[in-house]
What does this fold into?
Amino acid sequence: MKAIVNNWSVTRGLKLTIGLIALVQSILQKDITLSLLAGFLLLTAIANIGCCGSNGCTVNWSNRKKQKEIVNEELDNTK
It folds into this structure.
């Protein structure tokens, strides 16, 4: 329930708005394809899921190994 009420962003509100508009249009036009798209948009907006939603694309920084510093050396090419 907290995911539905909290953390609303502009993108999430835009998905909800477009989903509602698409749902109304699909009902008026009796279009099943548009209603599926509207349902998908409404589901992703309400549940805050989808591509990179709800930290889907975060990087786990605690498990990353520290990289060694790369040292570049100049080579003497005068032989």
Q: What stands out?
A: The radius of gyration is 24 Å. The helical segments are 2-5, 10-29, 32-47. Residues 34 and 48 are 21 Å apart (CA to CA).
